[in-house]
Design a protein that fits this description.
Number of helices: 8
Helix content: 25-40%
Oligomer: single chain
Largest sheet: 6 strands, parallel
Mean pLDDT: 96
Distance between the termini: 5 Å
CATH architecture of the largest domain: 3-Layer(aba) Sandwich
Strand order of the largest sheet: 2-1-5-6-7-8
Strand content: 25-35%
CATH class of the largest domain: Alpha Beta
Number of domains: 2
Order of helices and strands: EHEEEEHEHEEHEHEEEEHEHEEH
Shape: globular
Structural class: alpha/beta
Bound molecules: ribose-5-phosphate
Length: about 290
């Protein structure tokens, strides 16, 4: 794979903003896949340019579900014609169901990995929930971190301490804290159900500080809201929520009202996408060339 005239970035409808930024950084052409929905709800997909013999980087977040189907169709549109096909999945949905927690369950992240690698030569994801999911790929697959992007934004905002809302996110808080050269800490959380979490009280030295809570995903907002309440009670001056993948399902923004600011990257693009992971994706593509 070479960056230059023979490389093209093709985007699905879920990743247009990120892909535009990526193509600008790499100084290559961007092609936006055509997507239509038939009367019966079936998708129609077309790549409106001849890409025979090109090194193609196909970018598509696979959330919500129809975007996953769109990716399959885009991969089919490009099959057998490109010199190489690198599939970038900025938000790898289903990553949280990466094992069988209860008998009879699907290992969803394995099921998705096995299918998205059909008609691809390599895969790049951003902040999968757990690296374990990467073992489900048989192709070369790399997960890059969105934490440097969050650190860039939070550093510019003068954040003085980083907190992870649960133990899983502690390694992410460490990356952000170390890059910003500020202290980091973590809470322990228990999930009761999809909508309810309980965060263990832990006294942190946050009085008078501007604190950011960082995580991979905000879905219902319950995890973040629970951490914010504790930090407010302990006297934090300002509390910012920062995540890579901002899903913000129904009611999430209301649940996050205790935060002074809520930001995410452009892996799932929306009004809170204040920073791009395109520089990190571009760096990874350069490494591969
Ligand atoms: C789970 O451990 C993840 O890292 C997130 O903390 C979680 O998915 C966030 O979900 P919610 O916003 O619904 O609490």
């Amino acid at each position: 794979m070479r960056i230059g005239g023979s490389m093209k970035v093709v985007t699905g409808s879920a990743s247009v903003h990120l892909s535009r930024r990526l193509a600008e950084i790499l100084r290559v052409d961007l092609i936006v896949g055509e997507v239509r929905t038939f009367a019966d709800g079936e998708l129609y997909v077309r790549v409106p340019e001849q890409l025979d013999g090109k090194d193609v980087v196909l970018v598509q977040t696979i959330y919500p579900n129809d975007k996953l189907l769109e990716l399959f169709l885009l991969q089919d549109a490009l099959r057998d014609i490109t010199a190489s096909l690198t599939v970038v999945i900025p938000y790898f949905a289903y990553g949280r169901q990466d094992k069988r927690f209860k008998e009879g369950e699907a290992v969803s992240s394995r099921a998705v990995a096995e299918r998205v690698e059909i008609n691809a030569h390599r895969i790049i994801t951003v902040d999968v929930h757990d690296k374990r999911a990467m073992e489900y790929f048989s192709l070369p697959a790399v997960d890059i971190s969105g934490m440097p992007a969050l650190a860039r934004y939070l550093g510019d905002r003068g954040v003085e301490m980083i907190v992870a809302p649960d133990e899983n996110a502690a390694r992410r808080a460490r990356i952000v804290g170390d890059l910003m050269k500020v202290p980091w800490e973590y809470f322990k959380k228990e999930r009761i159900d999809s909508w309810t979490v309980e965060t263990e009280e832990k006294t942190l030295e946050v009085r008078g500080l501007k604190v950011a809570v960082v995580d991979d995903v905000i879905s219902t907002g319950g995890t973040m809201a629970s951490a914010a309440r504790i930090l407010r009670d302990q006297g934090a001056k300002e509390v910012v929520a920062g995540c890579v993948h901002g899903l913000f399902v129904k009611g999430a923004k209301d649940r996050l009202r205790d935060f002074d600011e809520v930001i995410c990257t452009d892996t799932v693009y929306g009004t809170n996408s204040k920073v791009s992971v395109a520089p990190e994706v571009a760096d990874e593509l350069r490494r591969l060339t």
